[in-house]
Specification:
By secondary structure, the protein is of the alpha+beta class. It has 4 helices and 16 strands. The strands form 3 sheets. Strands 1, 3, 10, 12, 13, 14, 15 and 16 form an 8-stranded mixed beta sheet that branches. Strands 4, 5, 6, 7, 8 and 9 form a 6-stranded antiparallel beta sheet that branches. Pfam families: YycI.
Length: 249
């Protein structure tokens, strides 16, 4: 055996391994940095209260505060509980993680699926949840296109048909910042030890069967590790607490 050559091979192998491990460590730190809370966006008293209540934030706080109008929508057939439709050809469920492939795979069965946003946080075992997009960007929470899967195949779906009205002369208003909304929750609503895992801006409105147009306002959605949801209306700042549909000041 040529020990000199073997030693060189081992040295190169260890160098390569160190490079791979170093890259992985850098990538993990980069992802962690990207998701870290910018505590400077919260007031000092809110940061202190976070420490006192043992509240953790694992989601990045968005910094954007777009100007958005209130909207209205209606269920086309007056009923949000549409029947379940079976797919003629089941689709591999892993495609849900690549939206372009998902759209290509399901557009024959659901032509407007490209106008929906995949809600990973709201999805659960056996169901993928998507929400219609307002103006092609903002999810309309609580209105669900539900994809049902079994044995790693999407086999059926349920899709309430809605129609979003043109806001017309409805005035656009700058939404409350996510940090302000979060500060209100930390101070008045979140329980001790709460862990916030997601913060998302979209629209929230009343959900009930009706032919009439239903109002919807911009809202920040906060999801806890426990699965509970809080919505903070982006214009008024009112909070809708989990498991209730009652707005609180």
């Amino acid at each position: 055996m040529d020990w000199s050559r073997a030693k060189n091979v081992l040295i190169y192998a260890f160098l390569l391994l160190n490079l791979v491990l170093g890259y992985q460590l850098w990538n993990d730190l980069q992802e962690q940095a990207d998701s870290n809370l910018d505590f400077t966006s919260l007031e000092s008293n809110i940061q202190k209260m976070m420490d006192e209540k043992g509240i953790k934030i694992l989601a990045k706080i968005p910094g954007d505060t777009p100007a958005l109008p209130k909207i209205s929508y209606r269920f086309v057939d007056g009923d949000q509980n549409d029947r379940m439709i079976n797919l003629e050809s089941p689709v591999d469920s892993k495609l849900i993680f690549t939206s372009k492939e998902l759209v290509n795979a399901l557009k024959g069965s659901i032509p407007d699926i490209g106008d929906y946003w995949y809600d990973e946080a709201a999805s659960r075992a056996g169901e993928f949840i998507l929400h219609p997009l307002v103006d092609g960007k903002w999810p309309l929470f609580k209105i669900n296109l539900t994809l049902y899967y079994s044995e790693q195949k999407i086999i059926s779906y349920r899709q309430p048909k809605i129609e979003v009205s043109d806001p017309g002369d409805e005035k656009e208003q700058r939404v409350l910042s996510a940090s302000k909304a979060l500060g209100n929750l930390i101070e008045n609503f979140l329980p001790d030890g709460a862990v916030v895992t997601e913060i998302e801006l979209g629209y929230y409105g009343e959900v009930f069967n009706s032919d009439a147009h239903l109002p919807a306002s911009p809202a920040w959605r906060f999801i806890l590790e426990s699965g509970k949801e809080y919505y903070v209306q982006g214009i008024s700042g009112d909070v809708i607490s989990p498991n209730t549909e009652k707005a609180k000041e």
